[in-house]
Amino acid sequence: MTAVVLAAGESKRMGSVTPKVLLPINGRPLLSYTIDAVREAGLKRIIVVVGNAWRQIEAIFPDSDMEFAVQAEQRGTADALLSCRDLLGDNEECMVLCGDTPLLTGRTIYRLVDAYQNSGADIVVLTARLENPFGYGRIVRGADGNVEEIIEERDAPRGVKKTTEVNAGVYVFCWGRLRPVLECIRPSSVSGEYYLTDAVRMIRSSGGQVAAVIAEDPKEILGVNTQEQLAEVRSEVGRRSFREQV
């Protein structure tokens, strides 16, 4: 299985000129934690989607066997994934992850791989239940309990915003099944971005199946978009390191 790590985000909201995935946590770039978790789970091939700062990211990992794909414009997660189209074969099983989630563990990644290979679903998504789900895309389940769609916070109606199960931004699928769906996604009327989450609704509407794995520890899905979130993640990484040493 191939890991595709989305790492093209900038640090505008962080007030930093350093690419977000290179911000330091305990002396290591944020991205390195996600890469380590992927390798711990046994995924051998890693493609990193980078943006305009790709030279800086490549320079930090000069001896890595990672491959890189460039997203020329910041047009959303679906567009970021399509930037890999020339690197992926139709029969290739893939996992998409975000490069700014350093608390995600190899154990959780392995659970997702196992669920995909044993469920028969077209897509398996990682979710979490949060007391305060603000800012996250919400998971919408049908009467049968299966995932029907994911609605981004900014697009969600009031009723959906009350849902506490959220999207973690991690997906497993076969590239040949997802690629034609991605190519049909239209930009959001609100943000203008091409959302990877739209693929869930489109696959369900065509009769496909979408399964979910709920994170055992909701902290694993924490991303970094603000200085406050960076501080929170740094504290949690420190706590984990302390527990491992005891």
Automatic annotation (TrEMBL):
Pfam families, sorted: NTP_transf_3 (PF12804)
Molecular functions per Gene Ontology: glucosamine-1-phosphate N-acetyltransferase activity; UDP-N-acetylglucosamine diphosphorylase activity
The organism's place on the tree of life at top rank: Bacteria
Catalytic activity line of the entry: alpha-D-glucosamine 1-phosphate + acetyl-CoA = N-acetyl-alpha-D-glucosamine 1-phosphate + CoA + H(+); N-acetyl-alpha-D-glucosamine 1-phosphate + UTP + H(+) = UDP-N-acetyl-alpha-D-glucosamine + diphosphate
Keywords: Acyltransferase, Nucleotidyltransferase, Transferase
InterPro entries for the chain: GlmU-like, MobA-like_NTP_Trfase, Nucleotide-diphossugar_trans
Domain MobA-like NTP transferase: 3-134
Coiled coil: none
Function of the molecule: Catalyzes the last two sequential reactions in the de novo biosynthetic pathway for UDP-N-acetylglucosamine (UDP-GlcNAc). The C-terminal domain catalyzes the transfer of acetyl group from acetyl coenzyme A to glucosamine-1-phosphate (GlcN-1-P) to produce N-acetylglucosamine-1-phosphate (GlcNAc-1-P), which is converted into UDP-GlcNAc by the transfer of uridine 5-monophosphate (from uridine 5-triphosphate), a reaction catalyzed by the N-terminal domain.
Family to which the UniProt record says this protein belongs: In the N-terminal section; belongs to the N-acetylglucosamine-1-phosphate uridyltransferase family. In the C-terminal section; belongs to the transferase hexapeptide repeat family.
Name of the featured protein: MobA-like NTP transferase domain-containing protein
